[in-house]
């Protein structure tokens, strides 16, 4: 009886403990949700209002001010736009135009439940980008899993420092010099198809170049990262494109931002998980084969980015990095870094090159000036190397001006890791600071009255002479987290421009509709249609 009673007591206590735990978990989650969606944005807003910052009076608990911003953006996107009109802020960063007109320079708004202030003063921007106490905002979990994992782009703090040390040698000048040939080869393959199309069409043809720039940059990144395994790498791009499409659609669903939503077995979530899994499988296979090669072949030496990464990684085996611990990447870390390089290195440069082709076609005088320089430097043969790329000054000026007018990442964000002082602003812990790169690149106070014109001449004496403040030009960000692939991308862009202009003449097709948009990246909504002619030599 006692035993039975004892058992009853035990079961009761167990049930009580379980119920209490469940209730505590529910209470904790409800409190976190209330903090995230209601309390934190209101608290931060109160602190900023007390300091004279202004912004929209109301915001939706899930969507923040997104409805108003998207409505304004869609109205702007539906208007016709002249190609030489670079005053496109209302479609690229609509929140900036909408709220700076209403509230002046010191304004805030809410992106979903995230409360943000916008900072444009170049001195403050410099402080934000260089001070490591401002860390990278965490990305939506689905985007993170799909494209970056726990890779360099998303890491913060000590993990980021360790990872950057491992990744940097793969992008040093000496390593990059050896990649120029690969860049030329990948470009030539696509340009040969242009030549064939022109021949078939009897002298000139219309081409949508955004697609072809994507083929070049995906081929360059898979060849430079994976060398002989580039074909396996290239399979990933189709999946990545599909993931971009699915995630863009998913973004329109307000529940997408709810914590834990990714675990709901919706058709879209299932497709996304399947694609992520497929990509990881391809990458793991490539890396495992490499690890095996390195193990059995003593003479195995660094040839491509993955080899370089793996060899820096194995040299780190016995090296104490920080706090006396060693840092070595495991296979999942390597997979995440490859994913990061694929997305960061492909879509960015591809959109950038598309805008470059468009502006070269629209400004024939600059196309000709660049062509003369290329003729002088490399005599129009494909004998391009790193030294010759360095000598292409006019091409460099054109590329800078395209980066200024069409920054591919039109805004950057950072989060305060603790209460801080930024100039005369008190920045509370957790506040998100947005840097509107696009608007800084188009500000007449920083660039002069001709800011809305395409004028590469402004870069004749370098960036420091082109604008009032070095931090006014940040297409690749600034401070310790500047783009790891900056020099890689500049080299690749020069190779593509030099190869295209050595063989072809470009003009804008009448079928081109100018519609820049900011969908993750600053890119042309309907692609870029150009008329391509073979150059008379
Ligand atoms: C037109 C081309 C490119 C542009 C405009 C661009 C722009 C940027 C920007 C603005 C950031 C910093 C983001 C932030 O501070 O929040 C960044 C980071 C990064 N980029 Fe690029 N990028 C380009 C090409 C590339 C290429 C070709 C690669 C690699 C092959 C690459 C790899 C990376 C990586 C790994 C990071 C993260 C660096 C870190 O956090 O330490 N990027 N990029």
TrEMBL record:
<dbReference type="Pfam" id="PF00067">
    <property type="entry name" value="p450"/>
</dbReference>
<keyword id="KW-1133">Transmembrane helix</keyword>
<protein>
    <recommendedName>
        <fullName>Cytochrome P450</fullName>
    </recommendedName>
</protein>
<keyword id="KW-0408">Iron</keyword>
<dbReference type="InterPro" id="IPR050665">
    <property type="entry name" value="Cytochrome_P450_Monooxygen"/>
</dbReference>
<keyword id="KW-0560">Oxidoreductase</keyword>
<dbReference type="InterPro" id="IPR036396">
    <property type="entry name" value="Cyt_P450_sf"/>
</dbReference>
<feature type="transmembrane region" description="Helical">
    <location>
        <begin position="14"/>
        <end position="39"/>
    </location>
</feature>
<dbReference type="InterPro" id="IPR002401">
    <property type="entry name" value="Cyt_P450_E_grp-I"/>
</dbReference>
<dbReference type="InterPro" id="IPR017972">
    <property type="entry name" value="Cyt_P450_CS"/>
</dbReference>
<keyword id="KW-0472">Membrane</keyword>
<keyword id="KW-0503">Monooxygenase</keyword>
<comment type="similarity">
    <text>Belongs to the cytochrome P450 family.</text>
</comment>
<keyword id="KW-0479">Metal-binding</keyword>
<keyword id="KW-0349">Heme</keyword>
<dbReference type="InterPro" id="IPR001128">
    <property type="entry name" value="Cyt_P450"/>
</dbReference>
<keyword id="KW-0812">Transmembrane</keyword>
